[in-house]
Structures are given as structure tokens and as C-alpha cells.
Amino acid sequence: MATHGAGAACLTLSALVVAFCWFFYLTGSNVIWTLVCLNIFIVLLSLWLRRLRQRDCGTERRVCVLVLGDVGRSPRMQYHCLSLSKHGYYVSFVGFLDTKPHQDLLRQEKIRIAPITEVKGAQVGPKILTYVTKVIFQSLQLLYVLLRMELQSHILMQNPPGLPSIAVAWLVCILRGSRLIIDWHNYGYTIMALNHGQRHPVVQLAKWYEHFFGPMATHNLCVTNAMKDDLQKNWVLKCCRATTLYDRPASIFRETPLKLQHELFMRLANAYPQFQHSSSENVRVERTIFSVRDLDDNTVTLRAERPALLLSSTSWTEDEDFSILLTALEEYEGFINGGALLPSLVCVITGKGPQKEHYRKLIDSLHLEHVKICTPWLEAEDYPVLLASADLGVCLHKSSSGLDLPMKVVDMFGCCLPVCAIHFSCLHELVKHEENGLIFKDSHELAEQFKSLLSDFPSSDGRLGLFRRNLRASRGQSWDDNWNQNVLPLITAP
């Protein structure tokens, strides 16, 4: 009612001003057109703002989830969408549609993907011009998409990347009376510093930008307690405005039957020779290098002489140094050549990203007999099955800020897959050394961990089996329960 009354008053006042200006126009005044144009602008702006803020009975049940990245490779934001839809909210999921999201999200009638395109700046001139024009064009595109939507009660956005999405989302919330929630996965400026260095002007600008706009959110979610503490101590956020929402595995990340594992191995064997088994004269048996299926009774078993399946997933970015893993695999090869009784390895590295071709060239330059490496891209439905089929996971994510946790390890733990993870300051919030995995600092330590964990493979009596049993016994709160406890009250608050 207040908005309606203010709009009516503004229109009445504007009409009076127009009449007054028209009188002066008839008398020949030279300033009249300036006043007329100004008045018309005020009227149109008032009408536009009133329309932007016009609520209906469904406004409080609509939420925009925003990520300035590939929605298919933004699992946490996909989980937000699914959780919102389960509680009856209609979700507009805004982001780049480069990779197909999970099927569960595509099947939800209450979730609508609003695709945006990644804008490229000016392709001529200095790099700073390219960067500035990219930010400007991306801002205009986001403004266009967000302002054309039906009025949303909240905008829930991921950071990073936050430039320019934080400022644009904040402006839209101001214009439309929505509330802004930022889900802090990391700090964007610390990621930029990996390329440019801490003192680079663009990095300093990005740091100021996040510090300036971050506190303007209605609420903030953090992936670790360490990040929550840092936000509160160094970013002038009040305690009540930051909540830790730990990543939890979605229900699709779980142990899977051997039959599903074998079916995936067969599909991968069609494309990757590392999964293929030499032909057999027995036509009643279907084989991969890991599994055997008896076609007579349809039973599936794992081969006793199979190699160990090592799995790592990555976005192929600067905060993951895969030369550490490659050096460790070379050292592991040396252990076998030196007479150690260890299994052969198939190392699968999944993901897409800017440094993938660089590392593929390094992989192709290796000449390993007992270690095979492949780098497939998996559909969203196949990735959890591969995790559940692996014997050991490896995580090389080294947080640029030291304050976030690798979601890939969360997914591995959901499948009861033990991990070897590279050390950084708050990793202990997720990986418990000698309980659900091991923490290493360099390639030599990682190679020694491979040797120790796989020395009695494929027996389940050793440390690898112990870690897996500990993971089964320590299953924590599910994503849904965690989300309902920490996020739902923020969305439903008046």
C-alpha cells in the first residue's frame, strides 16, 4: 500500500509540474524543455520502479539462484536449487549452460534454467581494456536477465566468481526489494592472485570490491568455520549474518552394486583402452580390466588380478598442481620396477578446465608400464558410480585462501572412498588423517602413501579397508538435513 500511495503521489505531482511547464511554454520561456524532460524522466522512473517492486501472491515462493559460471559444474548451487524446489519454491537458476546439469535438476518442474553467455571483452587494445569491457558487458547482460524476471523474494548467489555479479545482484535487490544471500566458496581475489600476484592492481581492485560489496548482503553462507571467522573478523560482518553450511554429499553419492560398476566400466572401455581387457575365447563372459560378467547367470565379480583404480577430479585450474600426482606416479612405477609387490594402477582424472591440455601433454610424455592414466569427461550420472568403483581418491586442491574445502572430497566420502589429500590450513575440518584418509605435503610423501595403502591390495583387511569402514560408520548429516537446518530459516524469515 505504501508503494502504491507513493507512486500515485508522484504521478499527481508530475502532472502538476507538466501543467506548470506547459504554461511557461505558451509564454515562450527558454528553460521549459529542460523542466519537461526532467519531469518525464521522473514519471517514467517512478512507474518503472513501481512495476519492478510489484509483488503478487507467488513472490515469496520464488528464488533466483545465480552463478557466474557453468551450472553443470556448480554442484553446490544445483543442490541449493533442488532443496528449494523440495520445499515448494520456484527457482530461476541463472548461469552458463555449458555442461548438462544433473538429471534430477532437469526433471524438476519448479526449476527453470535461465541461461546467460560468457561475455568476451574488446579483442583489441591492452588487456585492461578487454577486462573492463568484459565486466561492463557482463553487468549489462545480468541486469537485463534479472530485471526481466518475475519478482524474486531472494537472490542466492555463488562467490567466486563475484565480479560483477555481487554488485549487479545487490543493485537488483535494492531496486526490487529482494534479499541477497552470498554463498562464499572462496575469495575471488585470492584465485586471481595465483596468476597475477598479490600486488597486481587488478587483484587489489578485486579485493576492495569483495570487501566493499560482501557486507551488503542480507546474509552470508560459508563453506568452513575458518571462512566464517575470517569474514567476521576482517570483513566487518556481524556474527548473526554469517552461517557455516558445510558441503554434504547428495544422495546420488553412495556405494553402488557391482553390476552398475561393471556397466560403467564397459561403457568406458569402448572409449578408453585403459579399461579394456585382452580378448577372451570364452564368449559367455564379458570382461573389463576390473570386472567380469558371466552372461549365463548375469553375475558380476571383480577380477582378483585387477589393477587398483585411482581417481582424481579437477577443474584444471591454478590452485591444483597435478605435477605432484604425476611425479608420485613415476615414483610408484619405480617401486614396482625395484621389486616391490604392488598392483598396477589405472589413474583416472576427470574434469574440464583451462590447464587440461597442458597436463595432457605432460601425461603423454610419460613412459610408464605399470601405471595407466586417462582423462575422461563423465556425464553427471556416471561420475558418482565411478567414485564408488574406485579404490582410492586423490585431491590436489590447495585453497588459494586457505579457507575453503574441496567438494570433490565430500563426494568421495559420500561413496565411502578414502582419499589422499594435499595439506592446507583448514583441511582438518574435513579430512581426518589416519581415520578417513591421509594428508600429504609433496609428491614423495604421496608416493609413499600409495605404496603403504596398496601393499596388500586387493585385500580389505589393510589400512585402505579400515578407512572405508570408518567412512561407513561415520556418515554425518545429509545435505538435506544440513540445508533445512541452516538455510531454510533464512529463506522463510520475514
From TrEMBL:
<dbReference type="Pfam" id="PF00534">
    <property type="entry name" value="Glycos_transf_1"/>
</dbReference>
<keyword id="KW-0472">Membrane</keyword>
<dbReference type="InterPro" id="IPR026051">
    <property type="entry name" value="ALG1-like"/>
</dbReference>
<protein>
    <recommendedName>
        <fullName>Chitobiosyldiphosphodolichol beta-mannosyltransferase</fullName>
        <ecNumber>2.4.1.142</ecNumber>
    </recommendedName>
</protein>
<keyword id="KW-0597">Phosphoprotein</keyword>
<feature type="transmembrane region" description="Helical">
    <location>
        <begin position="7"/>
        <end position="25"/>
    </location>
</feature>
<comment type="function">
    <text>Mannosyltransferase that operates in the biosynthetic pathway of dolichol-linked oligosaccharides, the glycan precursors employed in protein asparagine (N)-glycosylation. The assembly of dolichol-linked oligosaccharides begins on the cytosolic side of the endoplasmic reticulum membrane and finishes in its lumen. The sequential addition of sugars to dolichol pyrophosphate produces dolichol-linked oligosaccharides containing fourteen sugars, including two GlcNAcs, nine mannoses and three glucoses.</text>
</comment>
<feature type="domain" description="Glycosyl transferase family 1">
    <location>
        <begin position="304"/>
        <end position="456"/>
    </location>
</feature>
<keyword id="KW-1133">Transmembrane helix</keyword>
<keyword id="KW-0256">Endoplasmic reticulum</keyword>
<dbReference type="InterPro" id="IPR001296">
    <property type="entry name" value="Glyco_trans_1"/>
</dbReference>
<dbReference type="GO" id="GO:0004578">
    <property type="term" value="F:chitobiosyldiphosphodolichol beta-mannosyltransferase activity"/>
</dbReference>
<keyword id="KW-0735">Signal-anchor</keyword>
<dbReference type="GO" id="GO:0005789">
    <property type="term" value="C:endoplasmic reticulum membrane"/>
</dbReference>
<comment type="pathway">
    <text>Protein modification; protein glycosylation.</text>
</comment>
<comment type="similarity">
    <text>Belongs to the glycosyltransferase group 1 family. Glycosyltransferase 33 subfamily.</text>
</comment>
<keyword id="KW-0808">Transferase</keyword>
<feature type="transmembrane region" description="Helical">
    <location>
        <begin position="31"/>
        <end position="49"/>
    </location>
</feature>
<keyword id="KW-0812">Transmembrane</keyword>
<keyword id="KW-0328">Glycosyltransferase</keyword>
